[in-house]
Amino acid sequence: MAQIRKEDVIESVAAALQYISYYHPPDFVRAMKEAYEKEESPAAKDAIAQILINSRLAALGKRPICQDTGIVVVFVDVGMQVEWEEGVSLEEMIHEGVRRAYLNQDNPLRASIVSDPAGARKNTKDNTPAVIHTRIVPGKEVHFTVAAKGGGSENKAKFAMLNPSDSIVDWVLDMVPKMGAGWCPPGILGIGIGGTPEKAMVMAKEALMEPIDIHELKARGPRNRLEELRLEIYEKVNRLGIGAQGLGGLTTVLDVKVRDYPTHAASLPVAIIPNCAATRHAHFTLNGSGPVYLDPPNLQDWPQIPWSAQQGRRVNLDTITREEIATFKVGETLLLSGRLLTGRDAAHKRIADLFERGQGLPPGVDFHNKFIYYVGPVDAVRDEVVGPAGPTTATRMDKFTDMMLEKTGIIGMIGKAERGDKAIEAIKKHRAVYLIAVGGAAYLVAKAIKKARVVAFADLGMEAIYEFEVQDMPVTVAVDVEGNSIHKIGPATWRQKIASLT
Fold first, then answer.
1. What does pTM read for this prediction?
2. What is the CA 451 to chain-centroid distance, rounded?
3. CA 379 to CA 339: how far, in whole Å?
4. Which of 69, 91, 451, 491 is the most buried (most CB within 10 A)?
């Protein structure tokens, strides 16, 4: 009978979380390389290039692929013949492994978990607790699947109780465009069908942990209805033309994974959960022989892609004017240099509360003629100015956009993914602009940040307001002063192009 030590669980979970913070699975890298090679949309091709280059840099530097190092999700299959050495619960062991991983001094990971979610939403500071799914199975081993899911992709999860006669494919094709680009495509769709609502969601999540093999499936052909569904959804979602980062292009999903379970005759529960461009999961087995440390991947598997942040219009953020931003064109690449301020959900809420009480901005915060970057960076280590600092999903700030443009004097925003109609109306009304950086390229973006300091709300941690000084930070004009949006124009254009080719 295998005896599993507490320390073996803790250390193995911690090591796996560190591993997946900076190593993409090789199957994901291969799929992204193939998507890059066949992509015909210049904007989407550039975004995929940045994601692949960022992936290699993160692997070399052993620093997070994405600043959102995720909520930890663990699936554990416990063998019935396993004996536990320590009198501590399995959940407590896993939580301690998470704590050890996220507080690692050589590669600290961003703490994003808040307790009291319907109230104070106070950061737990160590990214605990994890979300754990446990099964008791035959055997003498304990198998772990450890994942870290970013908020951008988790927030796009969809669920429905369909009628038994409804089309699952039609529902998926209706939902994917509504997910927008906040989940950082191209990625993977996990789909759960059947059971009960909670069972469908868990199946969709667990399906994301499977290797990418859609091309092998296409080559040999489907053997059952689920494989037929995978192929049909894969082909039809990619025909939507959403593309990398929602910019319009040939590849929106790299694979589609489907799991099912028997359900009630009156029901058809269906769930979708996407995995983003920071796809992170690892698998290991404990058998009583000690902790597990995963072997590093071969960096020769990463493509050498020629890319330089030298092509685009150079913009000086310290001297920029409203007249200058009025000349920005949707889809245009800009290279930003100078100072900008940061702020995301908690900072925007606090600013709104200050204005509501008749108070002004805190001392040291001047947004006049400035750009705000929606970001929550990872803590810096060694000689870093700041840790990985990619954009967060901008739509969460939509409800604050009109207030910020009217009362603070900002003239531009930087984030990822599309803006909603209300935010676009505010941008047009105030003749501001919205720019996007590539989600999933956080380590690469951080290379453009030359100085960083907290200027307000230090108690908010990663959600504090920073001042960044950047040099040649690559961004794309997503919404211009007239309210034209690349996230509407790009996918519509590529949907037509794809339709003409098929």
1. 0.94
2. 25
3. 19
4. 69
Of 466, 469, 470, nearest to 454 (Cα)?
Answer: 466
Q: What tokens appear for 472 in the block?
A: 């040649």
CATH T-level assignment (fold) for domain 313-489:
fumarase (3.20.130)
- Tokens 């603070």 belong to residue: 408
> Within 13 Å and on the Cβ side, how many CA atoms surround 257?
22
- How many CB atoms sit inside 10 A of residue 148's CB? 29
* Cα–Cα distance measured from residue 285 to residue 75, given in angstroms and rounded to the nearest whole number: 12
Residue 327 has which token pair? 């000349």
Residues 6+ apart with CB under 8 A from 81: 1, 2, 138, 139, 140
Cα 153 from Cα 276, distance rounded (Å): 6
State how far the Cα of 130 lies from the Cα of 96, in Å rounded to an integer.
Answer: 10
Q: What is the pLDDT of residues 41-64, one digit of tens each?
A: 999 999 999 999 999 999 999 999
The rounded distance, in Å, linking the Cα atoms of 426 and 401 is: 7
- In the chain, ranges of CATH 3.20.130.10 domains: 313-489
C-alpha neighbours within 13 Å on the C-beta side of residue 99: 11
Contact 178/299 with Cβ under 8 angstroms?
Answer: no
Structure-model confidence comparison of residues 309 and 10, the more confident one: 10
Q: Is 8 helix (H, G, I), strand (E, B) or coil?
A: helix
Residue type, 453: R
Location of structure tokens 């509407």: 488
Residues 261, 254 contacting (CB under 8 angstroms):
no
Spatial distance between the Cα atoms of 271 and 252, rounded to a whole number of angstroms: 18
Which of 17, 16, 29, 49 is closest to 299 using CA atoms? 29
Question: Please, are residues 73 and 128 in contact by the beta-carbon 8 Å criterion?
Answer: no
- Residue pair 159/269 in contact (Cβ under 8 Å)? The answer is yes
Query: What are the pLDDT digits (tens) for 150-172?
Result: 999 999 999 999 999 999 999 99
